[in-house]
User: Fold these one by one.
Assistant:
Number 1:
Amino acid sequence: MRIGVLGLQGDFREHVEMLSLMGVETLVVKLPEDLDLVDGLIIPGGESTTMGRVMENMRIREPLVKKIEQGLPVYGTCAGMILLSRKVVDHVQPLLGVLDIEIERNAYGRQVESFEVDLSIPAVGEKPFRAVFIRAPKVVKHGARVEVLAEYNKDPILVREGNILASSFHPELTQDTRIHEYFLRMVEK
Ligand code: GLN
């Protein structure tokens, strides 16, 4: 099994490091043809506007949409979640548009642009998960097929729709590998 991490912008090195610590083979994906070499793909946090634009410039956006529609498992964290979404409120930017959620960017307020909180995520076990939010997106709408795996203040912050997983927080910035393990189980299936 080889997991790709989209390496166009953002904190992809942290995902690579976490997967390597878990003993998983990784590939930093930059070119469309790299997509044929991986069994699953992580889209990191960063700046979704920039990442979306670079995706277009590198001509990887369309092939990636096709791969995801054909069943490639993907996991997007923060900016990655935004890119997977169908729509961003009041903002036009290149998206993959494969996950039936609507996003409000930077929606957790200025003073608390970054914060950490212990969350209950039954899908990954009983022990609370320390979630790191950095200028995080809020899921303001989601379709019926979207499964909400965890919430914070009643807002979905970890969601899944079939082969697509997305979180508004950054597990790659902690030592807790459980969400990555969950994603690897999706890839194994
Ligand atoms: N605020 C960023 C955006 O809108 C996302 C922040 C992050 O990935 N930590 O793209």
Number 2:
Amino acid sequence: MSVRVRYAPSPTGLQHIGGVRTALFNYFFARAMGGVFILRIEDTDQERYDPRALQDIYDTYDWLGISWDEGPRVGGPRGPYFQSQRTELYREYAQKLVDSGEGYHCFCTAERLESLRSGQEARGEGQGYDRLCRGIPPEEARARKAAGEKSVVRLKVPLEGSTSFHDRLIGDIERANRDINPDPVLLKSDGFPTYHLANVVDDHFMGITHILRAQEWIPSGPLHILLYRAFGWTPPEYCHLPMVMGEDGKKLSKRHGSTSLVEFRDQGYLPEAIINYVSLLGWSYDDTRQMFSRADLERLFSLDRLNKAAAVFDYKKLEWFNGVYIREKPDAALKDELLPFMRRAGLVEDPATPEQEAVLLAAAPLVRERLRFLGDAPELLRFLFRDPPPYSREELLPKKTEPEEILRYLGEIRSLMEGFFHRSDPENEEEFRLLAERLHTRLGSLLMPLRVAVTGSKVSPPLFESIRILGKEKTVARLVAAMEMLAARE
Ligand code: GLU
């Protein structure tokens, strides 16, 4: 049997870590098994539908480099892949259930359901439909429908016995039928399906073989099994994925930090780092290996190595992976990753000029080791694209030095700049050492004011390399500006 799996997001909010984990596991499982990965958009909830959420699905998986074999934009033999375009099918199959006696029309008004609910609440009873319409004879229901009375279609959940299914990871899951939602709505009065009906009908007609989804869907499992049975279909294999928790043991949510992918992307995480780390949330290859590229996972992923225990999302660990992948980037690739961040900070144009590209390419190796996120780069490299940020006179003065002294040093350094760009870094280091000796001062008393003059800060990427990228003209102009500041009377 060839594997067909799907990721079935509802476009109601941004893609977050949990959803991405589900998508990745489905995708990698399909790839590793030589199967088909489907994207299906579950957009039947008109009130909660948000077109930005749909765009975010495309953007997120395009950015991660995850593509689907069937689905929106690419089509496929079992489409359409938007549930909103399949409503005829759901209506047809809801009707089949009514015809076979597995479902029934319910004519209860919103007011009646509301008073039922508040009555149950006041008496401290369990909530749920009281099955009033379940007893209406089919001919009567048909007549009321024909007369234009509004209705929904409900499933007849058996009153006795229990329903069970096997979960590949968790084992057998059994539920007493009296504990299942009493006769859930399958088709609403506006003709739109609820999640349960659309999900089951689509999984069947799209030929889905395995359902990999979050554990929060386990409670829907027995109901779905009842639906498969009512239709006379064979259910797919189930595998509910381990929960993803924050470090406090509660379900991962905004309270713990960023969870939406767009936030991670904007902060400057690399897709490689996200894919690698998220794949380890509930899966492992063996007890030691932790570095996996997308291509590795496409080969190595298997359901047998899923963990039962909940996974803990560790922001620090993700940050660590990000650093590893940033350091693996060759200069040109790192430059390309940094460009959008520099652009957003207003430091390079859109598109970047060839000169800006060249500066960034030269600067990439200077910051590679220091970046936790790509978003750290603009701050570190600003001085290469703009005048240095304003600094105070005091910042130019190392401890126990006088302005006149530093003024003199900077004058000497300015002279050194004449030959600086013709010498190698070790040769320049030697020149500065000799100068310090000649001036009877420490090397630090030369380099620190130079660094502040050139970069506007006491901490910067390696100084000589930075000066080389900045060029003689700008370096000298910045030295002169610093000297003028020191020379000015307070
Ligand atoms: N649309 C559901 C969701 O948003 C799909 C759940 C499932 O995979 O059955 O997660």
